[in-house]
Amino acid sequence: CCQRHPGSVDQFQEELVIRPLHSGDIYASFQFRTLWDTDFLQERQKVSHYRLFPKSLGQVLSKFSVRELHISFTQGFWRTMQWGQPFIPSPPGAELWVWFHDTVSDVDGNWKELTNVLSGIFCASLNFIDLTNTVQPSASFKPLGLGNATDHRFLRYATLPREIVCTENLTPWKKLLPCGSKAGLSVLLKSEKLFHSSFHSQAVHIRPVCQDEQCTSKAWELRQTLNVVFDLYTSGQGKKEWSLFKMFSRTLTEACPLATSSKVYVDITDNPEGELFELSPATPLLSQAVVLGDRRTYSVFDLTRAEMFGQLRSLNLLLRWKGDSGDMLRPLLHAERYVAGFGLQTGEIHTVIYNNHPYRAFPVLLMDSVPWYLQLYIHTLTVTSKSRDNKPSYIHYQPAKDRHRPHLLEMLIQLPPHSMTEVTVQFERALLKWTEYTPDPNHGFYVGSSVVSALVPSMVAMNTNFTQDQPLFSSFVPVKEESSYFVRVYTEPLLVNLPTPDFSMPYNVICLTCTVVAVGYGSFYNLLTRTFQVDEPSLPLAKRLANLIRRIRGVPLLA
């Protein structure tokens, strides 16, 4: 599989971005990009040769006519107000959204089969995705690759907020890489270190892209991302000192032989003169990139250059903190959500969206998917900004059907500058059948995160040339205008208690019933079936001795 096929221009790139956070934590973001030079969706041809692109995913794209596929597994919650915006956001648990080709006749059938296949590939519980937790967003999830599909009948979106991410999910994810975990940046992906962190997220994104500016040739892009945040005290043993070995228990020794580009970026934007932290070994290579509306400066370590590893053939980046990092600039867009109310009959969902821009207003698209057992009273929906009603300019609502589909609510809301906008809606809890409760019903039922999508005003001019050679972490979402950039924010998932019967009562009834049957019926049955015999009473000891003497003497015995 490692021989270059004649005419093949498949490419593989790998990147690691290390960003010291203002909280003292370390944010490490891995990105692996594989370009597959084929266009089987247009040619409808059978692809039999795979060089760098994993065959398992290629067969999935071909069999189910997938145009785009995005899947993520996340453990923990991204703290936007402490860490800023991530490069690629993801909600807690599992998230899957897929665009199918417009030639698919049975989208729901393909969706069901696809989730079962992906469940096996990634060793996850995606087979629990069905029509009761699947929605068709009308505006929130547009294609990120080629094409401008607007028919949302071919889009499916679902989340499993309770999905637990562990080693069995990481291992198949690493096997999709051309070099596996044997060489390159992937040697740092050690499970016992990655899962001993404050936040961990791994994702797979597949989409068609252009290979040149005129888009004369197309290719499939597989982008595997892994984001992890290491806590200062749990991972650094309480010392303000970081290194690759302390974070991952490994050092870098070589680039992946199949990679055309292998680089490590360290964000030094807040450390221009070295007064905040010291980075060693030093590198003269610097790079600037516009990321999330801000111009950032990075120290670049090119792993394809042999001199980067030194005489020991090992690269171990070391970062020593010198002073306090100061306060972080508040993100321009932030959202949170919570449940209000008391009792187990009614409640209220509050979604709060913050626009921290001092003088610019901009619209946001809010999407909520609520399970059917929370019956929304949509007439109680209110949107307020600065204590005034804020009427959405667009509302799409699809009511739920019991045990068939969830609620779907999408709204386009204009956020005033430097404001807090609150969206509230009341609901009533349904009473489930006793077979529909989870094994631990008193823990509660999870409701997936709200999704807030927006074009946020940029501080600097964004780069609109999508095909230009630029770092992977700054080129995932296409930029169509220089004055704004796209941001997607996920709120916390909700944990809602439902009316729960006393599942121990059947056990108590069974025990009481069995006791009554055993004591009552058992005694009655014994009286009916037992046979009674009359036993003659035995004589006292004195009479028996007298009778013994009388027998010897031949005298009649006493009665």
From TrEMBL:
Biological process per Gene Ontology, one example term: attachment of GPI anchor to protein
Annotated InterPro entries: PIG-T
GO CC aspect terms: GPI-anchor transamidase complex
Transmembrane portions of the chain: none
Record Pfam families: Gpi16 (PF04113)
Family matches, as PANTHER family: GPI TRANSAMIDASE COMPONENT PIG-T, GPI TRANSAMIDASE COMPONENT PIG-T-RELATED
Full protein name: GPI transamidase component PIG-T-like
Name of the gene encoding the protein in the UniProt record: LOC107724198
